């Protein structure tokens, strides 16, 4: 009886706490407590109380877990700030210019002034083919052209053409010859400097430590200390000579003085190379100096000596040609005494046609001569060179490769889902796997291919980005992790993108929690969707306001 009353009383208390609308009188609670007290006075009653207590705990726990506490919302805040739309892709670093070079016609290689790793300027020769026959044909065409000009000049003079034509032809030819001879001397001096610079700084500097300093040191051991000192002293003098000589080439003063200086400079270089050749000829292979290295030294010195010999011969020939041209000009100028009669228009037109034909022949032979010289179309570094002196090459065969230095691009492929966001001129940042992630570079989108490229069944579009600043350690083929900034808004209101919902009529809204636990809908207009998961919004919204992301039931 007591047990039954106790359980009923506890149940009433629990029900009362869960549903307040059920009333429980104080007398009922008092009787329940008295029943519990009576039960607890016996041993059996104590066990019953334990059971009752466990029941109370179980029922109370069930009630607590299943009580109705109302809806719970996860919220975020309306914030004002900047929002960015970005496209992340992976690309590969490539040189901005990568050129494969070949001769336009076949022939025998006569000279290769560069090697792999050499930096060349646009228009700089890389290799030559033998072209003596074409040079002779060009000179003949130029002579015929000059004669045609002379004949035309004689006709245009008019009076006494039989006498004036002699003078005109001689003076015109003589002046042209003098100008060409002077130009030839200056060109030969420029070529002589180039050969001297290459022979000293290019062919022999590998044998020195600090070759361009005030104390160049011959790095290869030779048994003759006097010869070693002589070589080092001459190298020191040549460095100053080359610097002075190069500066003087840009200022044309007296051609005789300049050419005499050039001859002396070439003689000094020739003597220096003879000394170096004598030193390397006595080298013997050791554990630290291989025969292959010795042979390379000898070859380089021999090439330099050969180039200087060519320069000396060329300069001497050019000076002789200038003296002869000047003498011929003085003779022709002293013979002027006649007047010429005017020629007919038909005769003049015929002579002009002969001049045009002669000019065309000169242009044709110059083009043929140009085809025997392989030149760099752009400035860059030679990365491969498959041609040797004496070798016969075929037209169109790839003999060299040239890549730009310090000018790199990134080639990447953007999926079709993102390509409409990217435009030429967009700014981008990227990192390289070869660097730390905190090393960030800047680039600009310069080109977007209009045609798709299918990669693993997905349509992508090739996008090329140009480096803004060049890093010396960047190499072709490095992997780049690129972030392209496609759009940006500054100082705008933003909310998490998942907080924006859409009604059936197409308008967008967000939910704002109220104090009584309900939510209200605020109409908004979405703007730019950022890459950080937030979206620009405007409309019925206030900065700092809480918005509902989702509701927990």
Describe this structure in words.
The protein is of the alpha+beta class and 553 residues long. Helices cover 45% and strands 27% of the residues. The protein contains ten helices and 22 strands. The protein has a six-stranded antiparallel beta barrel. Strands 3-12-10-5 form a four-stranded antiparallel β-sheet, with no helix packed on it. α5 packs parallel to α7 (255-281) and α5 runs antiparallel to α8 (291-333). It is elongated and about 145 Å long.
For the termini, the CA-CA separation is: 43 Å
Q: Return the CATH architecture of the largest domain.
A: Up-down Bundle
What structural class results from the helix and strand content? alpha+beta
Number of strands: 22
For the biggest β-sheet, the strand order reads: 2-13-16-15-14-17
The radius of gyration over CA amounts to 47 Å
Summed up, the helix count is 10
Largest sheet: 6 strands, antiparallel, barrel
- Low-confidence parts: 1-32, 337-341
Mean pLDDT: 81
What share of the residues lie within helices? 40-55%
> According to CATH, what is the topology of the largest domain?
Butyryl-CoA Dehydrogenase, subunit A, domain 3
């Amino acid at each position: 009886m007591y047990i039954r009353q106790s359980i009923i009383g506890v149940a009433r208390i629990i029900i009362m706490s869960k549903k307040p609308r059920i009333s429980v009188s104080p007398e009922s609670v008092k009787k329940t407590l008295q029943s519990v007290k009576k039960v607890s006075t016996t041993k059996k009653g104590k066990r019953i109380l334990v059971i009752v207590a466990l029941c109370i705990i179980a029922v109370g726990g069930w009630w607590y877990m299943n009580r109705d506490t109302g809806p719970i919302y996860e919220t975020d805040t309306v914030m004002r700030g900047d929002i960015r739309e970005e496209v992340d892709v992976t690309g590969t670093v490539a040189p901005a210019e990568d050129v494969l070079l070949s001769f336009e016609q076949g022939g025998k290689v006569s000279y290769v002034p560069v090697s792999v790793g050499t930096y060349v300027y646009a228009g700089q020769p890389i290799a030559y083919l033998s072209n003596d026959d074409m040079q002779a044909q060009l000179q003949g065409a130029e002579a015929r052209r000059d004669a045609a000009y002379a004949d035309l000049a004689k006709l245009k003079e008019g009076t006494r053409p039989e006498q004036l034509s002699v003078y005109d032809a001689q003076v015109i030819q003589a002046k042209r010859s003098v100008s060409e001879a002077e130009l030839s001397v200056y060109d030969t001096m420029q070529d002589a400097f180039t050969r001297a610079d290459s022979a000293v700084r290019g062919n022999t500097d590998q044998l020195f430590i600090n070759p361009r300093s005030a104390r160049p040191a011959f790095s290869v051991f030779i048994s003759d200390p006097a010869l070693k000192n002589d070589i080092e002293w001459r190298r020191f003098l040549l460095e100053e000579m080359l610097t002075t000589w190069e500066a003087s080439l840009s200022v044309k003063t007296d051609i005789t003085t300049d050419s005499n200086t050039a001859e002396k400079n070439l003689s000094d270089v020739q003597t220096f190379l003879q000394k170096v050749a004598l030193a390397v000829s006595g080298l013997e292979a050791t554990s630290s100096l291989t025969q292959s290295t010795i042979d390379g030294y000898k070859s380089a010195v021999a090439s330099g000596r050969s180039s200087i010999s060519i320069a000396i011969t060329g300069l001497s020939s050019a000076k002789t040609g200038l003296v002869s041209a000047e003498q011929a000009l003085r003779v022709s100028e002293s013979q002027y005494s006649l007047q010429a009669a005017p020629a007919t228009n038909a005769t003049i037109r015929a002579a002009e046609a002969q001049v045009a034909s002669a000019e065309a022949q000169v242009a044709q032979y110059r083009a043929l001569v140009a085809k025997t010289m392989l030149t760099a179309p752009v400035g860059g570094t030679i990365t491969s060179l498959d041609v040797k002196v004496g070798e016969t090459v075929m037209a169109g065969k790839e003999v060299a490769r040239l890549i730009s230095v310090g000018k790199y691009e990134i080639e990447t492929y953007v999926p079709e889902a993102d390509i409409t966001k990217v435009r030429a001129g967009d700014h981008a940042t990227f990192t390289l796997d070869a660097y730390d992630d905190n090393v960030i570079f800047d680039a600009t989108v310069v080109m977007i291919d209009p045609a798709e490229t299918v990669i693993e069944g997905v349509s992508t579009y090739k996008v090329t980005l140009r480096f803004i600043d060049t890093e010396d350690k960047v190499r072709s083929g490095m992997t780049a992790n690129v972030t392209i900034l496609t759009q940006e808004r500054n100082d705008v209101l933003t909310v998490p993108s998942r907080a924006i919902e859409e009604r059936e009529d197409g308008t967008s809204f967000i939910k704002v929690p109220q104090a009584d636990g309900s939510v209200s809908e605020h109409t908004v207009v979405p703007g730019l969707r950022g890459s950080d998961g937030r979206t620009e919004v405007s409309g019925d919204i206030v900065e700092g306001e809480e918005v509902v992301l989702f509701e927990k039931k």
